[in-house]
Specification:
This protein has 258 residues and is of the alpha/beta class. The protein has ten helices and six strands; from the N terminus they run H-H-H-E-E-H-H-E-H-E-H-H-E-E-H-H. Helix 2 runs parallel beside helix 6. It is elongated.
């Protein structure tokens, strides 16, 4: 290639303009945006998965903790330390009980609602206010009743508890009843009735009836009355007359007349 060759003159011109170093075999258009260099992928450690809870194992653990409790304070501490129920992970508080542990009547509802989860006491929302009025009609207040639920933790969205959740928490309820040892248990609502009696009939068929409730740790069965849950009565006020009949039956039993 001689100096007179057009390409040679072009090369001389490139050098004169400062393009005196080759960076690649192919030309590059410097007017285009610079390409984005891909960054090397970084390995991110996966988040630890929530431990698997096997219902049978969780129920066995609950039973062991509950049977070990020799007082209500020990039972409450055991419930608060128990991690076998998945509802505890979404609830705000452990809702144990309210009222007088020495009362003659123990009321067992279903599970805490939004107000109960926020405050930490059972039956404090609209259903609880109705329950207070119902009990007051037969001369009972929070100082002369003991109130709890089948579950200590609120199901998300106030949904109905699953059979697995009930079975997991049931050992605490049995021990709860045995330690309180009231004269009568009121099973408020279908979940409470099915949990304690192991029956599948609807609450409308079982309400108003007394049952002999065998309680582990007690020598004799406990008298137990099935009735409507106050939240059901809020939705179905026409059933309040039946609930009033149930309350009169409870009053008679507590006074030794039933």
């Amino acid at each position: 290639m001689t100096a007179a060759h057009p390409l040679a003159r072009l090369l001389d011109w490139y050098v004169a303009m400062g393009a005196d170093e080759a960076i690649d075999l192919a030309p590059h258009d410097c007017t285009l945006p610079a390409p984005i260099e891909p960054r090397p992928l970084q390995r991110v450690a996966p988040l630890p998965a929530a431990p698997l809870v096997v219902p049978a194992v969780a129920a066995a653990s609950a039973r062991e903790l509950a049977e070990r409790a020799q007082s209500l304070a020990e039972l409450e501490a055991a419930a608060r330390s128990f991690d076998g129920c998945l509802l505890k992970r979404t609830a705000t508080k452990t809702v144990f009980a309210d009222g007088n542990p020495a009362a003659s009547v123990m009321i067992v509802g279903e599970a805490p609602g939004a107000d109960e989860d926020r405050i930490g006491r059972p039956f404090v929302g609209r259903a609880g206010q109705l329950l207070d009025r119902m009990l007051a009609a037969i001369g009972i207040d929070r100082g002369s009743a003991y109130i709890t639920n089948v579950l200590f933790w609120r199901p998300p969205g106030n949904r109905k508890p699953t059979p697995e959740e009930v079975a997991t928490c049931l050992p605490f309820l049995w021990r709860h009843i045995a330690l309180v040892h009231p004269k009568a248990v009121v099973m408020a609502g279908g979940t409470s009735v099915s949990a304690l009696l192991g029956r599948n009939e609807g609450i409308t068929r079982l309400r108003g009836r007394w049952f002999d409730l065998p309680v582990p740790g007690l020598a004799a069965p406990m008298p137990a009355l099935a009735t409507y849950h106050p939240s059901f009565l809020l939705r179905t006020p026409a059933r309040k007359a039946e609930a009033w009949t149930d309350l009169l039956s409870l009053q008679a039993r507590l006074e030794g007349k039933g």
